[in-house]
Amino acid sequence: MTNRRTYHHGDLRQAVLTAALDVIATEGPGALSLRDLARRAGVSHAAPAHHFKDRTGLLTAIAAQGYDLLAEALAGAADLRERGVRYVRFAAAHPAHFQVMFQPDLYRERADDAELLAARARASAELRSGAATLAADPAVARDTGIAAWSLAHGFATLLLTHNLDDPLGGRDPGETFRALTGLLGSAQLTDTARE
Prior knowledge:
- The protein is mainly alpha-helical.
- Helix content is about 70%, strand content about 0%.
- It has helices at about 10-25, 35-40, 45-50, 55-75, 80-95, 95-100, 115-130, 140-160, 165-170, 175-195.
């Protein structure tokens, strides 16, 4: 008699994605193996390939899922600062997604990966919409958006690599980011007043 676990799983795709996210969060994307993920999910070693084809396909699915989650996190943010806070909180809540999303050499970026391209477009639109209202000149709005994204992404990356553990001293990263961007705004206003 065949063991039912070797050929059936309620939601194999999500089970493999969840196991992969756990591995990435603890060991990094280099530690991923479809065979190991199949073992963790309790299915045959070939079962994950039916959903993802290969390791790159799995990482592509993780990136697409991450961009969708990021777009959801940013949706409805009141202003550019709040988008930055939500970006930092997204990274803290989804470190494995964040790690894969911004390493495009890990996944497929081809035009035929419609799920990834659509998810990335949604996230990009949410990121850009925060800066669009800040300046009448589209070039200035674009550059403001790049600066804001750089600040939030840099903060999130430092947070995930534990470089901010001591400086944060247990403070909430999102609230700390909000306070830091407030300081930058105050510095700009102060510099403008001196001129």
